[in-house]
Specification:
By secondary structure, the chain is α/β, with parallel strands linked by helices. It contains 13 helices and 13 strands. Strand 12, helix 11 and strand 13 form a beta-alpha-beta unit. The radius of gyration is 20 Å and the shape is globular. It starts with 8 loop residues before the first helix and ends in a 7-residue tail after the last helix.
Length: 387
């Protein structure tokens, strides 16, 4: 399913892009001793974006998916023995102008058993929050990952839907309890690209692998005469309820594929207008296609159902750089935030490289950077005097 929105260009570049770095200097790093209390983030009063508390100042989430390193390793693979790498990567993302980093947590690394969390992983997460606070970077914590199939516990794979949901609720209760007092968490993203079952014949909990990782995940294998959107809403409600038993403050969302709208063709069952009531805001993963920027924007509009919308993943996989820039600019009418990708190779290597993949990545990052500077400029410009 993942290849429906990521194929062609990105598939050909996957190996090289795993080591690509985003690096544009846009500010000075905070010194380690200059730690300040980060304001909490909430949905703004007009329900169209976000604001800091208690000031009410506008907050636009802008940053990177930190979903793997240059070798394709997930964060839990190296954050124990190579913490310096985490610090260096966060420092680079801060230098790039990010205020949000999306971190993907694997269920198999955080649940020792069905009802007992891995205390070592929770301690490492606490250390990550401290680092985020030090650098004033908010975390988009995306959970329940099963990206590397070999890391998925055998006991978890054998569970039925009800028991599986119970484990997922235990995961989120443990993570939320660990994070409850930290303003450095922007949001909890329940799962990356969940799909509700469309029939009773599904055999695998995970979608097809893309670049060696399973990004799409089923929340059930059978409909049992239940409407798909009702399954999706019940699943969200259960996980949100688990979080709210220990944390009533942090925002909750879910990372949706762009084919979640109720329209002909491939669908996920997570119809925005039918699940929005359970969430604080919506996230969409949207990759504009060649000659179809208007179509991408129309899809984005389908996610604007009365709550803020964050484009949680985007990249010019199947469109030109000019089209990508146009998409970013025009998406401002509906989007409240943007998150691209960071994987870790210095910009000097991109600029000196003769590889077409590096050139395309560099141009893409420049477009992303230009968009960030435009947003900042617009925020800094006082409104016109109408008197």
């Amino acid at each position: 399913m993942r290849t429906n929105c990521r194929n062609g260009l990105f598939a050909g570049f996957a190996k090289r892009l795993l080591g690509a770095t985003i690096f544009f200097a846009v500010g000075e790093m905070l010194l380690a001793d200059d730690v300040v209390q980060m304001p909490w983030i909430a949905v703004s009063a007009d329900r169209r974006g976000f604001a800091t508390l208690p000031s009410g100042k506008s907050f636009v989430p802008y940053g990177f998916n930190y979903d793997h390193d240059e070798a394709g390793r997930l964060i839990e693979d190296y954050w124990g023995a190579e913490w310096k790498k985490i610090e260096d990567d966060f420092a680079e993302m801060k230098t790039l102008g990010a205020n949000v980093v999306r971190v993907h947590l694997q269920l198999g690394k955080f649940m020792a058993t069905a009802d007992r969390p891995n205390e070592q992983s929770l301690a490492r997460l606490a250390k990550l929050m401290s680092l985020a606070e030090q650098m004033e970077l908010y975390l988009d914590l995306t959970g329940l990952g099963c990206y590397h199939k070999h890391d998925v516990p055998a006991w978890y794979e054998k569970l039925d839907e009800s028991a599986r949901w119970e484990v997922q609720a235990n995961f989120w209760k443990a993570v939320a309890a660990q994070c409850a007092d930290s303003p450095a968490v922007f949001c909890f993203d329940l799962m990356n690209e969940p799909v509700a079952p469309a029939n009773n014949d599904h055999q695998d909990w995970l979608g097809p692998a893309f670049a060696g990782k399973h990004f799409v995940q089923m929340i059930g294998l059978e409909t049992r005469d239940r409407p798909r959107s009702e399954i999706a809403r019940a699943w969200i409600a259960k996980l949100v309820a688990a979080i709210r038993t220990v944390d009533r403050r942090h925002l909750v969302t879910v990372g949706l594929v762009d084919w979640s709208l109720d329209r002909p063709g491939l669908t996920s069952g997570f119809v925005p207008k039918q699940i929005a009531g359970e969430l604080d805001f919506l996230c969409v993963h949207l990759y504009p296609e060649k000659d179809r920027v208007d179509a991408a924007l129309k899809t984005l509009q389908g996610f604007a159902v009365g709550k803020p919308v964050v484009i949680e993943e985007t990249f010019p996989l199947k469109c030109s750089q000019a089209e990508f820039r146009r998409f970013l600019n025009r998406s401002e009418e509906m989007a409240a935030g943007w998150i691209m990708f960071y994987w870790g190779t210095p910009v000097g290597e991109l600029r000196s490289s003769t590889g077409i993949e590096d050139a395309i990545l560099l141009q893409s990052l420049e477009a992303f950077q230009q968009h960030l500077e435009q947003l900042r400029s617009a925020q800094a410009t006082p409104p016109c005097n109408q008197g």
